[in-house]
């Protein structure tokens, strides 16, 4: 029975479509070094984009006998030509033979997908209501909050589309998309020095009626009347001002007619492209990141319940794809979401301290609980003296770092309550040693960093864990920078002095000043203390509960890379053995084979020396797995087999997990009351190698719609359903939030937490050398 629906819409005429194409031979070097297959893929992708733009045609990458070619429609004229792919040049030679394929043909399906995608994009690119942030993402030109005259940020609403096969049938996938863009122009919002510090940030550039995304490279010393360049296809230099005004003489928008020739010029590039271009700063608006405070107040506008989301998605299909065609053939795209019958994974037993096991059942008992009561019961078992944490180890020195600007009575009471909360979880003595730091005159990031590090030096703290209370007026970059700076001295869980103080009030009783928690805030304060204590215990590598039945695959190695740092988590025996390790990396996005080889080899050799036989290992990559990373992993496994640490029959493979996937598929349960969120544990294979799993959902409260996790087998012969079920099981180890459900499996969540602590973005120059900021209000101890 098809009791669920997905945001996929079938192309009814797809089996009848015929695609005629010709190949372009690629003559030239596509990589700088032998074995760098990642660079080959990057250059092929870039080459296909260049040809698509220049020839205004669909382009697909294909391989014949291991050699790459480009495929273009057979009716498209193309002459032999050289194309520059910095720093090399390749020659493209059109082949005479015309090839034919149908959509149903398994081989070279990607040609059909690329040609159809190009056909779908054409009308969207020409729609005056839309602008495009990337080739398959389109947003309406009018922000949905345009009526708010006091807005600081514009919220643009739109959609992303993709094509995929499901059960050998071709579908259009539609996902909602949002962009947060500064409502003020770059020159109005920022001073010149501030603009230069926004280098490589993304902007929406308003080139007349054309809107497109660019990356800022530099603010030029010349104005747009003096800044000159030679346009593509021309030999004569022209100023930015004259070029822009000439291009939009007919019916120009207001930002062109009002363009000031004395305003600043900039250089920019298109994202992931090397060519520098010239433009006007007055035509750019900053694209806010989703985690920017300026965008936070608008998040609620992008959250939709399943019924609203599916209706909105179906409306998009009717509005923009109902009459889509390929050549003269209408595609016949259905206008209702596709119905499916997913799989259901059961919640496995969970083991807490002292052998206490929690099971989910249809009827509650002394040892079982209803699914809806699972989160609350997990928290209760952590607090139960006869249960508690499953994996514990002796704690080293524990500290609480307190700013002197925080009221001393508040600081003392918070410290006392936090110590009691931690004791309630670990059921043993616990004490936080106090370290006071003087932040009262610390206004800049450098001054605040210096205040904290000086206090640690004075107190002779050189190792341990603890809690850092950030100043009420902490610099925006302090949290990230200080955690990274202190990681080799003390690892900390951070809280805000402002947030802590908000729970308290000062009263006078019998002519004595007393500090107490606000009565209406007591429940929230208890939760705040618990989550702070749990975060502190995770920093101390204490794990709340485990999977006594384990996972289908014996070991999971999850890793991610952020800002020249890598985090690896090693998960064995259902979480009874779980280790997180961070490493510096010279690479920003991918790791070299040698680095992966050494990390995996040394870690497995250390971890498995007393763990017995490991029969299967899964490498789990957050995002795309690069070829170099897979080669390094394979090399480590081979070496461990040669040394007898792993058996020669060990099974291994790799999967990719896309946390934020533009091609994501949403799923909803269909009922008499319309679309509802699916139950946790719902999984749907999308092909033999990729699928989705719902780690959040019914019966738990959720604002908006379930966002399934997309998992794809990247290498090796792994069973997709086993990988999906392991992913679901490991998401139930929600140590940071025992009384909630968690979207990520715990190995990925721990990588995220520890990587953010050492590699999140912060302004290092500001922390080292200081930048004066606005005057802060006077803050003194009471």
At a glance:
The protein is of the alpha+beta class and 782 residues long.
Keywords summarizing the entry:
782 residues, Rossmann fold, 10-stranded antiparallel sheet, 19 helices, globular
Break the fold down into its secondary structure elements and pairings.
Elements: E1 4-6, E2 8-10, E3 18-27, H1 37-55, E4 60-64, E5 67-73, E6 81-85, E7 88-94, E8 99-102, H2 109-125, E9 130-134, E10 137-140, E11 153-166, E12 169-182, H3 186-189, H4 192-196, E13 202-207, E14 210-223, E15 228-229, E16 238-239, H5 240-247, H6 254-257, E17 264-269, E18 277-280, E19 284-288, H7 293-296, H8 306-320, E20 325-326, E21 329-330, E22 338-340, E23 343-344, E24 350-351, E25 357-360, E26 368-369, H9 374-383, E27 398-403, H10 408-426, E28 433-437, H11 445-458, E29 465-470, H12 478-486, E30 491-496, H13 497-502, E31 504-509, E32 512-517, H14 522-539, E33 555-562, E34 565-572, E35 577-584, H15 593-607, E36 616-622, H16 627-642, E37 651-658, E38 667-671, E39 674-676, E40 682-685, E41 690-693, E42 709-715, H17 720-731, H18 746-759, H19 764-769
Parallel strand pairs: 25-26, 27-28, 27-29, 29-30, 33-36, 36-37
Antiparallel strand pairs: 1-22, 1-38, 2-12, 3-5, 3-7, 3-8, 4-5, 6-7, 9-10, 10-11, 11-12, 12-19, 13-14, 13-19, 14-17, 15-16, 17-18, 20-21, 23-40, 24-25, 31-32, 33-34, 34-35, 37-42, 38-39, 40-41, 41-42
């Amino acid at each position: 029975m098809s009791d669920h629906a997905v945001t996929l819409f079938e192309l009814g005429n797809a089996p009848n479509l015929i695609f005629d194409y010709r190949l372009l031979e690629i003559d030239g070097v596509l990589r700088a070094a032998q074995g760098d297959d990642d660079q080959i893929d990057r250059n092929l992708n870039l080459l296909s984009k260049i040809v698509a733009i220049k020839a205004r045609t669909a382009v697909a990458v294909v391989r014949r006998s291991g050699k790459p070619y480009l495929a273009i429609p057979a009716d498209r004229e193309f002459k032999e030509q050289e194309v520059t792919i910095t720093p090399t040049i390749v020659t493209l030679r059109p082949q005479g033979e015309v090839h034919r394929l149908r959509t149903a043909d398994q081989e070279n399906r990607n040609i059909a997908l690329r040609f159809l995608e190009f056909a779908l994009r054409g009308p969207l690119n020409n729609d005056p209501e839309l602008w495009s942030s990337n080739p398959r993402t389109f947003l309406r030109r009018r922000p949905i909050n345009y009526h708010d005259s006091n807005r600081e940020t514009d919220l643009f609403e739109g959609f992303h589309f993709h094509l995929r096969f499901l059960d050998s049938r071709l579908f259009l996938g539609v996902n909602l998309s949002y962009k947060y863009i500064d409502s003020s122009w770059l020159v109005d919002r920022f001073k010149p020095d501030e603009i230069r510090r926004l280098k490589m940030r993304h902007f929406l550039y308003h080139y007349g009626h054309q809107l497109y995304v660019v990356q800022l490279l530099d603010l030029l010393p010349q104005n747009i009347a003096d800044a000159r360049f030679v346009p593509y296809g021309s030999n004569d230099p022209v100023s930015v001002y004259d070029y822009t005004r000439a291009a939009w003489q007919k019916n120009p928008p207001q930002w062109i007619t009002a363009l000031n020739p004395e305003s600043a010029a900039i250089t920019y590039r298109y994202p992931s492209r090397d060519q520098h271009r010239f433009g006007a700063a007055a035509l750019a608006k900053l694209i806010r990141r989703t985690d920017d405070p300026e965008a936070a107040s608008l998040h609620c506008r992008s959250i939709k319940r399943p019924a609203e989301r599916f209706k909105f998605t179906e409306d998009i299909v009717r509005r923009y794809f109902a009459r889509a065609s390929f050549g003269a053939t209408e595609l016949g795209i259905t206008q209702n979401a596709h119905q499916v019958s997913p799989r259901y994974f059961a919640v496995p037993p969970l083991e807490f301290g002292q052998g206490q096991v929690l099971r989910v059942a249809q009827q509650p008992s002394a040892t079982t609980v209803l699914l809806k009561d699972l989160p609350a019961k997990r928290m209760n078992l952590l607090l139960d003296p006869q249960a508690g944490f499953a994996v514990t180890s002796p704690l080293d020195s524990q500290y609480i770092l307190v700013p002197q600007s925080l009221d001393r009575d508040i600081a003392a009471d918070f410290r006392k309550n936090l110590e009691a909360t931690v004791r309630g979880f670990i059921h043993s003595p616990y004490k936080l040693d106090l370290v006071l730091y003087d932040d009262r005159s610390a206004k800049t990031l450098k001054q605040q960093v210096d205040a904290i590090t000086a206090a640690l030096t004075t107190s002779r703290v050189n190792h341990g864990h603890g809690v850092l209370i950030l100043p009420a007026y902490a610099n925006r970059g302090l949290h990230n920078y200080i955690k990274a700076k202190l990681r080799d001295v003390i690892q900390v869980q951070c809280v805000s002095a402002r947030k802590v103080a908000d729970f308290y009030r000062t009263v006078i009783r019998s002519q004595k000043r007393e500090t107490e928690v606000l009565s209406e805030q007591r429940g929230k304060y208890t939760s705040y203390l618990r989550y702070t204590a749990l975060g502190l215990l995770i920093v101390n590598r204490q794990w709340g509960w485990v999977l006594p039945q384990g996972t289908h695959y014996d070991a999971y190695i999850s890793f991610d890379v952020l800002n020249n740092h890598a985090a690896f988590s090693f998960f064995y025996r259902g979480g009874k053995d779980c280790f997180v390790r961070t490493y510096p990396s010279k690479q920003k996005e991918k790791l070299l084979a040698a680095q992966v080889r050494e990390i995996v080899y040394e870690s497995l050799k250390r971890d498995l020396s007393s763990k017995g036989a490991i029969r299967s290992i899964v490498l789990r990559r957050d995002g795309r797995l690069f070829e170099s990373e897979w080669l390094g992993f394979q090399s480590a496994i081979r070496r461990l087999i040669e040394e007898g640490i792993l058996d020669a029959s060990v099974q291994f493979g790799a999967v990719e997990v896309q946390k934020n996937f533009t091609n994501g598929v949403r799923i909803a349960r269909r009922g008499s009351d319309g679309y509802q969120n699916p139950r946790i544990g719902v999984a749907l294979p999308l092909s033999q190698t990729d699928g989705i799993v719902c780690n959040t959902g019914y019966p738990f409260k959720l604002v908006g719609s379930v966002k399934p996790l997309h998992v794809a087998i990247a290498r090796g012969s792994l069973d997709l359903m086993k990988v999906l079920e392991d992913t679901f099981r490991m998401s139930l180890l929600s140590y940071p939030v025992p009384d909630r459900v968690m979207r990520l499996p715990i190995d990925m969540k721990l990588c995220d937490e520890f990587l953010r602590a050492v590699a999140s973005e912060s302004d290092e120059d500001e922390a080292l050398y200081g930048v004066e900021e606005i005057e802060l209000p006077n803050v003194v101890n009471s």
